[in-house]
Design a protein that fits this description.
2 copies of one chain form a homodimer. With 148 residues, chain A is mainly alpha-helical. In chain A, 65% of the residues lie in helices and 8% in strands. In chain A, strands 1-3-2 form a 3-stranded antiparallel beta sheet. In chain A, a hairpin with a 7-residue loop joins β2 and β3. At the A-B interface, α1, α5 and α6 of A face α1, α5 and α6 of B. The first copy, chain A, binds a DNA duplex (30 and 30 nucleotides) through α4.
Chain lengths: 148, 148
DNA sequence: CCATGCTTATTAGCTAAGCTAATTATCGTG
DNA sequence: CACGATAATTAGCTTAGCTAATAAGCATGG
């Protein structure tokens, strides 16, 4: 393997990383065998499983999507029985959305499938390479969350 | 910063990396100020700028998309005057697609905008962190291209 | 040498995701 | 308590993806 990447300029690094992220993201999106759910639906469902119950507005903000878009995504998830809406205890305008047991089940299934794919991809790497990726993942996650 | 990530299991690494990729990909997609082109349109255009001229079938395979989908993407690019179709010299069934000068211009503009965004994100990192990301980018790109 | 079958591209018709603008209902405040 | 702000939804648009069906050209076997 070529030993480039010592003291790379930020621009060159950005280009390289951007390309890698785009391609890996596409591959990851295509590793979606079970459940027939889209990326977004899974992401929303996973968020709900973590947070317990959120309002559509909160979900829209979390996904960086406009409220009407979230309404649609929720409608599809509700049709499939994966989420449920319940009234907000104190604010009549708001709605609380939570995952049903079936929804939570789908989340863990999907998560497993995605991880399996990435794990298979990572299996051929050396320990050193895996360590680099581990450190990189932390940095990338920090970057991705910035400005929230 | 926490010093995790020494000898991480592949599964844990996969989960972490997957999350980072998903989020960064979304952010990257939203850093799309100029030109009003979508991710796919840009990707196709960039591919054409690199390769010179390709058939719709080749483009569809490169983007991992079905031929009718590519037909639509090409139609929108052609409407905007960013690509042109020309007959294949030896095979009457095929079509050669290439970027127009305007298309090539858009490619470099878009690339610059995306790189600027990532560069800004990377600007706050230490030299060590940037080096880790540089090494990681190489590994990730290799993984993403695997199985082509 | 031509009929038949394969490949390429496109069209038609569907679903999902994203947007803005407009509606409806509720909240809170002056 | 009226009126402005906020939450959710509805309506209506574009883009992207799919499968199935068509149309046209290629290539080959009899």
């Amino acid at each position: 393997m070529a030993v480039v990447s010592k003291r790379m300029t930020p621009a060159a690094l950005a280009a390289m990383l951007g390309d890698a992220i785009t391609r890996l993201g596409r591959r990851q999106r295509q590793a979606r065998p079970v459940g027939e759910l889209t990326q977004n639906q899974i992401s929303v469902l996973a968020g709900l499983e973590l947070a317990g119950a959120l309002t559509p507005r909160e979900l829209a903000d979390a996904e960086r999507v406009q409220p009407p878009t979230m309404t649609k995504i929720l409608a599809r998830l509700e049709e499939r029985g994966l989420i449920q809406r319940s009234p907000h205890p104190t604010d009549g305008r708001q709605v609380l959305v939570s995952a049903t047991p079936a929804g939570r089940h789908v989340v863990v299934e999907q998560r497993r499938a995605k991880d399996e794919w990435l794990t298979r991809m990572l299996a051929d790497l050396t320990a050193d390479e895996r360590q680099i990726l581990g450190q990189a993942a932390e940095i990338l996650r920090r970057i991705a969350r910035e400005g929230d």
